[in-house]
Structure formats: C-alpha cells, structure tokens
Design brief:
about 15% strand; five-stranded mixed beta sheet; Lambda Exonuclease, Chain A; 14 strands
C-alpha cells in the first residue's frame, strides 16, 4: 500500500526510474502532479521513440495493436487475453499484463510454436545499453509475464541496426532492426531482481521520500524530471565543477569536508587541467599561459571561422544514411583576410524536407576555397566538424578530395583555450558558451530563441516537417541563422581577446 492507504501499481517505466533513483520513483508515484512538463527535447525523444516503435511493428505482418490508453488498464488486459486466445493473431503490440502489482505493456509479443511467445522490447538506440537499463527493462517484463502464466521462448531487445543503409526509397523494417536474445544477460539481472523490487516497494511504503543525495544519477541516463528540486544552483567554485572529475574523487573531498575548489589541498591528486581550474578559483584571477601566443602565431590567414549544425534522427531519412547518422543542415563561416580586417559572413540553412547534403557541401566549399585553398579553418571542437566532413565525403565521393583538403586545414580553438586559459567564471567548463561571456563580457547566448545545438536540431526538424505559418517559418529561420552566426562570430572575438592577453 502507498502512503495514505492508496494502492500502488508499478509500471516498467517507473521500475526503471527507480533504478536511476529511488527518490525519483517516490515522487513519480506519490506526487505526480509536481512533475514539470517535459521540455521540447524530451518531447522530441518520446516522439522519436514512438516513431521507432511503430516502424518495428511493421516487421510483424498481421500483428494487432491493443488499442487502450495507459489509464484504461482493464480494457488493455481484457483485449490482450482475447488476442492471445485467437490463434490467427501472429503478434500482439502493446499487450498488457498485471502480476504482483506490476503492470507492463510489451512492445512486441510474437506467437511461436507450442503455445509459447517471443517477447521483444524495442529501443531507438543502435545497441544494448547497460547504463540505460535495457536489460532490466526486459527483465521486469519477463518477470511479470511469467507470473501471469505466459510461457516465453525468449526475451529480446530490438534495436536499430547501424549496418543498415537506407536506399532513399523504402525502409525495410526487417533489416532496419537487429534482435538480440538477452537470455544470458537476463540471468544475472534476475538474481538481483527480487532485491531491487523490495527496495522499491519499501521506499514507496514510507511517508517521506528516501534520503538520496544528488549525484551522477541526477542526469544519467537521463536528466531527472525533478532535477531542480534536488540540485540547487552551485557556485562556480564548487568542487563538482572541476572538469572530468570522477565521483570517487568527489566522494573523497566530501569525506574531507571540502565543497569548494578554494579549499582543496595542494597535494590532492588532480589532473593538470583540474589543478589549473582549482588555482584559478583560489586566486580569483584569470590565467593565460606564456605559451598561448606561440600557439596563436601558428594561425595562417585568411582565417575561416566555421561552425556546423546537425540533426541525427534515429531513422535514416536520405539515401546512403544509417540510423542516427548526422544530417548537416546549416553552416556559418566568418572570414578574416588578415589581422584586423573587416569580417565577411557567409551562411547556409536548409529549410525544406529535401536532402540538404550536396547543397550544404557545394556552398561551403565555394567559400572555403575562395583563396586557392589557403588559410586555416578555425573550429571549436575539431572532431565534430571533421567527422561530419568525412560523412559527406563518404556520401558524396566526387567531393571527397576537396573535403580532405579542408580537413587538413582545420585548426581547433578549444584545446588552445583548455591548455592555456582559465577564468573563475568558466565554472570548470571550456565550452564556448561558458568561455565567451567570461572573456568577452556582454557577448552571451542568453535570451536567444535558439541557444544551443539540441535546440537548433529541434528547430530545423520543425522547419522541415511543415505546418508552420509564413511568419513562424521566418522567425524560426532567423533564430537558427542568428545562433549559428553567433558561434562563428564568437570564435572571431575569442581569438582577438586571446591575442591581447
């Protein structure tokens, strides 16, 4: 029973939430009205998961969907029983089962010989992911089905197949998905499943949520809906903001009664970058290394400050693409011919549903090759842009040699900042959005309609899916162009600031 005597029923989603954090589970069950509305990124993730699930169903011809909303439990259970009793039904989608006060809806339940069934959970990932509790997700379903009297031949996970290449015409669900039999992995989980369930039932039986300290679980595998409820905004010198610091070291510092970087002893083991961030917090002053100017002197003009925006849908959209491949839909380039010269700005944004890849690379190369292929192409995180260029070379072989020449010209600004610069206001982060306002006051992403890469991908998706008024399309285009242009202008200003350090 729940607090106040209300009966509790677990679901597979709540069970998985409890694996992430028992406090999260408690609030989802006992205080669901306090759960904030999901943000746009979360909504998009849910919508993509639904789209993948529907596509997976097409691999089972003749399968029947149990059409019942999540609150229509009785209807779903009865309809499931009817379909299981009908030998003409080869597969059931969203079948419902209730046992031991746990309700599950199975993605795919396929009829096999001997009165047995094959259970398959569908995921939009391209592999089985332990940190996302994929195995536990299947394990709780198997647990409930077996206690409901269903004989299973196997319990599986269907995920997208990264080897599948879309022909640009017809998606083939049978090839798009890979099915993994989890029997071997389930054995280990099933040993601890009773204990995990006891922990969850015990937590839910209390009058107060369990005392769980904030930690990695707040954002892994997903950011908790109640993140702000547990995590108060921390000062920039909080020890948890040291870059790439492991939880074990944070636990060590906490055990020493240390919360601020200012109090970390000089002999506490930290990486060179972590120690520099720590010392910067302690002095309260920015740091610029003596070798900074040496690195900046390697820049060869003209300079092309470049940034890409991409969307990586689970289901491939264009010919030659695989699941979760990046679609490059936007670029911005600020050109500086020589030190202090007037900037030139060039940009590209795909704004319809057509394949943007060829137009993207053609327009980009036209700008980058305007000085006979001379000059560095400055980026902030070279691996991202270089990988996207490699993708384009693979999809569009006629451009491969020209793309390779651009890749050789890439010059990464991020490691220069990370190795030679630090500021108390970075908050331990070397992302452009943290570095920029600290070193160039007044230049920030705050207040922008599109203010980070995830938002850009969502905005592009909205733009190309249609249904917007002319006015809304124009506003969304302007927001996307402003955001990408801000990224490249930021790099220009950052180099200028570093040169004067």
């Amino acid at each position: 029973m729940a607090k106040h005597g209300k009966p509790i029923t677990l679901s597979k989603s709540k069970f998985v939430a409890g694996l992430q954090c028992l406090k999260r589970l408690y609030w989802l069950v006992h205080e669901p009205e306090t759960k904030p509305e999901p943000d746009e990124e979360t909504k998009a993730r849910f919508a993509q998961g639904h789209e993948v699930g529907v596509l997976a169903q097409k691999a089972f011809l003749g399968g029947v969907l149990v059409e019942a909303e999540y609150w229509e439990v009785g209807k779903a259970l009865e309809r499931t029983r009817e379909l299981m009793a009908d030998p003409k039904v080869p597969a059931i989608f969203e079948a419902a089962f209730l046992a031991d006060r746990i309700l599950v809806r199975t993605d795919i339940l396929e009829r096999v010989r001997g009165g047995r069934w094959r259970l398959s959970e569908v995921k939009s990932s391209t592999d089985v992911r332990e940190k996302y509790h994929h195995v536990e997700d299947v394990a709780i379903q198997k647990y409930v089905l077996e206690r409901a009297g269903v004989e299973l031949s196997s319990a599986n996970l269907m995920h997208l197949n990264r080897s599948y290449i879309f022909d640009g015409v017809h998606l083939v669900p049978e090839k798009l998905f890979t099915t993994v039999n989890l029997s071997r992995k389930l054995g280990e989980v099933e040993k601890v499943l009773p204990r995990l369930l006891r922990q969850q039932w015990e937590a839910l039986s209390q009058n107060e949520p369990p005392d769980v300290e904030p930690g990695d679980q707040c954002e892994c595998p997903y950011k908790c809906e109640f993140f702000d409820r547990c995590n108060k905004e921390l000062p920039n010198d909080h020890m948890s903001k040291l870059p790439r610091i492991r939880q074990a070291k944070l636990d060590q510092l906490a055990a020493m009664g240390i919360a601020s970087m200012r109090d970390i002893p000089d002999d506490f083991p930290l990486s060179a970058t972590q120690r520099r961030v720590c010392q910067c917090a302690q002095t309260g002053k920015p740091y610029f290394s003596a070798a900074l100017q040496t690195d900046l002197e390697t820049l060869e003009y003209p300079l092309y400050f470049m940034d890409f925006e991409t969307l990586y849908p689970a289901i491939p959209r264009y010919a030659g693409m695989r699941p979760s491949d990046h679609i490059p839909f936007q670029w911005s380039v600020h050109v500086q011919r020589k030190p202090g010269s007037k900037l030139e700005h060039h940009e590209f944004l795909a704004d319809d549903g057509r394949d943007p890849r060829q137009e993207f690379i053609e327009s980009l190369l036209k700008v980058l090759e305007d000085a006979d292929g001379k000059g560095h192409v400055v980026v902030y995180n070279q691996s991202f842009e270089s990988t996207r260029l490699a993708d384009l070379a693979q999809w569009l072989p006629p451009y491969a040699k020209r793309i390779a020449k651009v890749q050789k010209r890439l010059w990464d600004l991020r490691p220069v900042v990370e190795h030679h610069v630090c500021h108390p206001d970075f908050g331990g982060s070397f992302s452009l959005k943290s570095v920029l306002p600290a070193l160039i006051p007044g230049m920030t992403y705050e207040g922008m309609e599109v203010a980070e890469g995830g938002e850009a991908g969502l905005a592009y998706n909205t733009l190309v899916r249609g249904g917007l008024s002319a006015s809304d399309r124009r506003k969304l285009r302007e927001a996307l162009l402003a955001y990408c242009g801000q990224d490249t202008l930021a790099m220009v200003k950052l180099v200028e600031r570093l040169r004067s350090a």
